Amino acid sequence: MLAIIAYFWVVDIQTKVPVQIKQNCSLEIKQFMGRNLFIVTPKNKEKTKTKILYFHGGSYVAEATKQHWDFIEKIVNDSGATVILPDYPLTPKYNYKDVFQMVVPLYKEIIEVVNQEDLIIMGDSAGGGLALALEEKVGEENLLMPSKTILISPWLDVRMENPKIDEVQKKDKQLNKETLKLAGIAYAGEDGINSYLVNPIEGDLSKLNNLTIFTGTHDILNPDVHVLNEKAKKVGVNIEIKEYEQAKHIWVIDKNSGKTLEQQAYQEIMATLGQAQTDHKW
């Protein structure tokens, strides 16, 4: 992680599209505020009205990986939905302010042309934290919310102060608390370390609806999911927690997680997405 942060300090890394995406899906690449916006639709299946705005993980440092693209390809071809993947700015060259200068106008543009009931937001890891923070910002500005939100192993607090994290760290062989904190500090910039845009666990949850979180007990980000859930209950918001015993970080999109755990969670994601109808072009 330290080597990645040092390298990215001067390099503007951008997401590259694997060859199989172009072979197995229909892909359109648009420019939005100087960044790529990838729009992935099914090639051999009837397209539905469902639009999924997806934020990839990577500690706010790394671009979308082949794992992310494989997952997106599967969702698109299994559900018929359209996935919109923003290539948002990465830290440490950029910080959360740069990210929100892109994603808030993007959301506003999407919600103008996509019916609320057809829009779903998804995100994994850091992308899950970004997705939730964006919705809290959307609620603050009294904009229409998406119909559903699905978060996979979301990073809800970059400060990593929950005392239960240290206990889970003994089981988590994938993530490291201290290296994550360094990435979080870089993402927060000079003034954002306590901002809800960086730590959506601190945001206003009162306007959220239809939020589902997939989390594993062998993930150091798991304890904060329970803190978020308790906060949501206090403001009358129900979060559906899909907790998997012994599942690690983002196991749903990791083909090495073990087929049973991965398939069970994926089936639940498909059920959460639900059925959609035939589509108009975005």
Structure description:
By secondary structure, the protein is an alpha/beta fold. It has a single domain, classed as Rossmann fold, CATH 3.40.50. It is built from 9 helices and 8 strands. It has helices at residues 2-8, 19-24, 66-79, 96-113, 126-140, 164-169, 177-188, 222-234, 259-273, and strands spanning 25-32, 35-42, 51-55, 82-86, 119-124, 148-152, 211-216, 239-244. The protein is globular and about 50 Å long. It starts with a helix and ends in a 9-residue tail after the last helix. Mean pLDDT is 92; it is low at 275-282.
Quick rundown:
With 282 residues, this protein is α/β, with parallel strands linked by helices. The protein has nine helices and eight strands. An eight-stranded mixed sheet has the order 1-2-4-3-5-6-7-8, with helices on both faces.
Helicity level, as a percent range? 25-40%
Query: In this structure, how is the largest beta sheet organized?
Result: 8 strands, mixed
The 3D shape can be described as globular
Strand content: 15-25%
- SSE topology string: HHEEEHEHEHEHHEHEH
| CATH homolog superfamily | Alpha/Beta hydrolase fold, catalytic domain
How is the CATH topology named? Rossmann fold
